[in-house]
Amino acid sequence: MTKPTALITGASRGIGRAIAFRLARDYDILAAARSEPELQSLAAEIRAGGGRCTPIVLDVTDAAAISSALAGVQADVLVNNAGVGIIKPLLDTTPEEWHRQIDVNLNALYHVTRAVLPGMVERRRGHVLIIGSIAGRSTFVGGVAYTSTKHAVQAFAECLLLEVRDFGVKVSVVNPGGVATEFGGGDPAAKSWALKPEDVAESVAQVLATPPNVLVHSVEIRALSKKP
Ligand code: NJP
């Protein structure tokens, strides 16, 4: 029996990789990121577990590469997860660091979603899910670029929902607190207090599993213990 298809960006490691594993139970996976060896090893592990996974080597800051790589892709679910966090005060943030965060965390949402949304609208079903952040409703020193992108993600998600709900397409945003990944150059082993990537993946699976007439638009997921 064919399964529906889920396209996941930033699937080479961290939260995206955990989402790919979790969704592989119920979906054929299209796993996108720049790191081909990591995508190949993910695909091999999913296949070893009886699932299907196709790697897509893709830089989500490259609009032309997105159109070409995703041409003809029919995704039932899109998880926009790829993200970059460079936590620095404005005066220490280089133009490259500023633009990279806007490009990966915000502009890529437009380009990747624009590539697969027409098929969802045409088929009158689909689910676009975005990994936001609790930084999408808070501020902190060093967060000027990162929190700006994640605040924008909330608006992107809600506006898009209002545009496509009448076409049967759902839009959700999952906003985690701290997660033990390499995000921001951190060492996952040093974040024992944080959520595990698998915790976020489980929330994503639950948001996707709602009945056709029900939408969970926004979820905030935090570790119960606080950062020491
Ligand atoms: O980060 P990390 P997480 N083109 O660094 C990909 C949000 N979040 O899993 O290209 C394509 O382990 C990169 O792939 P590669 C966060 O904002 C996190 O923690 O191979 N892909 C890798 O797969 C983000 O939206 C925390 O280098 C690109 C992935 O992105 C999401 O969770 C807290 C790319 C990053 O993996 C996943 O973050 C929170 C590009 N140009 C929200 N650039 C947290 N971890 O604490 C990067 O509130 N990627």
Count all strands and give the number. Answer: 7
Strand order of the largest sheet: 3-2-1-4-5-6-7
pLDDT averaged residue by residue: 97
- Report the top-level CATH class: Alpha Beta
Q: Helical proportion? A: 40-55%
Q: What is the helix tally?
A: 6
Instruction: Please tell me the CATH architecture by its name.
Output: 3-Layer(aba) Sandwich
Characterization of the model:
- With 228 residues, the protein is an alpha/beta fold.
- Helix content is 41%, strand content 17%.
- The chain has helices at 14-23, 36-48, 63-70, 95-123, 144-164, 197-208; strands at residues 5-9, 28-33, 53-57, 77-80, 126-131, 169-176, 218-221.
- It has a seven-stranded parallel β-sheet with strand order 3-2-1-4-5-6-7, with helices on both faces.
- It binds 5-hydroxy-NICOTINAMIDE-ADENINE-DINUCLEOTIDE PHOSPHATE (NJP).
Helices and strands in order:
Blueprint: E1 5-9, H1 14-23, E2 28-33, H2 36-48, E3 53-57, H3 63-70, E4 77-80, H4 95-123, E5 126-131, H5 144-164, E6 169-176, H6 197-208, E7 218-221
Parallel strand pairs: 1-2, 1-4, 2-3, 4-5, 5-6, 6-7
Helix pairs in contact: 1-6, 3-4, 4-5
This protein binds 5-hydroxy-NICOTINAMIDE-ADENINE-DINUCLEOTIDE PHOSPHATE.
